[in-house]
Amino acid sequence: MPADAGRKGGLCMTDRELFFAIARGEPTDRLYFCPDITDWYLGNHRGPGEPLKYGPGVFIPEEDSIRHEHQEHLDPEFRDLSLLDFHRRYGWGIHCHIRDWYRVDYAPGTRLDTTVEGDRMTQVWSGPAGSLTRHWQLAADGSWASLDYWMDGPEDLPVLESLVDAERYTLLDENIRRVLDGIGEMGQADIVVNRSPFGKLLHEYLGFAQTVFLLEDEPELCEHFLEVQTRKDKELMELAAASSCSLVLICDHADSTLFSPTMYRQWCIPFYKQAGEILGRANKFVSTHLDGNLHTLLPLMAQTGFHILDGCTPAPMFDYEPEELAASLAPEQTAFVGVPSALFCDGTGEEELFALADRILRAFHGRVILNVGDILPANGDIRKVIALGEYVKRHPLNGRTAGR
Questions:
Q1: CATH 3.20.20.210 at 15-105+153-393, yes or no
Q2: CA angle 32, 36, 37 (to 5 degrees)
Q3: Do residues 350 and 343 touch, judged by C-beta distance below 8 A?
Q4: 256: region left, alpha or beta (phi > 0 left; psi from -120 to 50 alpha)
Q5: C-alpha dihedral over 253, 256, 257, 260, to 10 degrees?
Q6: What are the residues whose beta carbons fall under 8 Å from the beta carbon of 342, sequence distance 6 or more?
Q7: R_g (Cα) of the chain, nearest Å
Q8: Beta carbons of 337 and 358 less than 8 angstroms apart
Q9: Angstrom distances, CA of residue 43 to CA of 67, 100, 313, 378
């Protein structure tokens, strides 16, 4: 890609340079608008009843035929465009998540099998100590919705522990390079670490209620398992540190509905700091995904050690204001903060969208990655995203964003 790829109309910074300048708190030459429209793009190129071809937020190669599929309902001006074409045409930055940056193999005798029958998917994770099963249902939007957790109760912890301990990780740096080369200077990507050890317990292994009972009834058993999972996740952090990607996302999807402040402080932040130490030695930026209600967790954000908060979506979708979020962060932190995506689906007028964007930009004094919070759904109004991008280009804070 040419050296000036991603530059806009004589501006000095490429979108990639702009992102990392914001992350470092350095002066920038303009505001950064970086909407994630992958759900909208995938949903508008999907046939009825088909699963999504890609996950949300991932890189979609320009040569993929999806750009020509199931597009009869799209306005002619939006047909046959690749995802990158949208970002080029309208001057947006792009941010992608790389999930296939490593491979999981297993010690002899342990395996993970997946079968799909119609709209049901079943996964069986088995090894010498026993097996666990999880079920999924194809949702109306084409994503796979989990129907249960890996464990039925604490009695399954010894089996889970043996399965986790049997995992072996291999870096697939060529997958990272392929995405970074495809994006070029138009933006950036992160590599995804799927949850902290405690986040896995809440979201995937046991669920909220059973985890609370486990913490109260058998704390030593819980702590022992988390020690095993932490050891394995630190192996993954060492792998991420050796990768060619500059940004690592610890994707806990934390919010105050599932994570109480006590849980977050006691079980999540210590791991975040351990991960930050490993990744910091390799000069990586570390981010986390926080979509949902955050009001009770905001006082803890400055203690996490994260450089960037991803997915932040303020009121009216969730329970905090952009000014509260900005005030809660440490001086070295910044965030992806979005105009709530629901407002692109319900007929909200452009001026109200612009007013919310203005509040976000001013709360952070321009040192923020503005987007659509946190992703534009398939029924969102793409024309209002385009209008918001044009508004950001003419915003008075442009060229005066020295940071908070």
A1: yes
A2: 130
A3: no
A4: alpha
A5: 110
A6: 316, 317
A7: 21
A8: no
A9: 12, 22, 21, 5
List of E strands, 344-384:
369-373
SS (H, E, C) 22-91: HHHCCCECCCEECCCCHHHHHHCCCCCCCCCCCCCCCCCCCCCHHHHCCCCCCCHHHCCCCHHHHHHHHC
201 φ, ψ to 5°? Answer: -60, -45
Q: How many residues does the chain have?
A: 404
Which of 109, 154, 115, 158 is closest to 133 using CA atoms?
115
φ and ψ at 78, to 5 degrees? -105, 0
What's the burial of 108, exposed, middle or buried (CB within 10 Å: 0-12/13-18/19+)? exposed
Q: What is the tens place of the pLDDT at every residue in 25-73?
A: 999 999 999 999 999 999 999 999 999 999 999 999 999 999 999 999 9
Joined tokens for residue 182? 């495809």
Phi/psi of residue 114, nearest 5 degrees: -125, 130
Q: Where are the domains of the chain?
A: 15-105+153-393
Tell me which of 1-5, 139-143, 184-188, 354-358 is least confident: 1-5
Q: What is the sign, positive or negative, of the torsion defined by CA atoms of 369, 300, 209, 153?
A: positive
Q: Which of 246, 251, 107 is nearest to 169 (CA)?
A: 107
Q: What CA–CA distance (Å, rounded) separates 27 from 25?
A: 7
**What is the distance, to the nearest Å, from the Cα of residue 107 to the centroid of all Cα atoms in its chain?**
30
Tokens 């340079």 belong to: 17
Query: In this predicted model, what pLDDT tens digit does every residue of 366-395 receive, in sequence order?
Result: 999 999 999 999 999 999 999 999 999 999
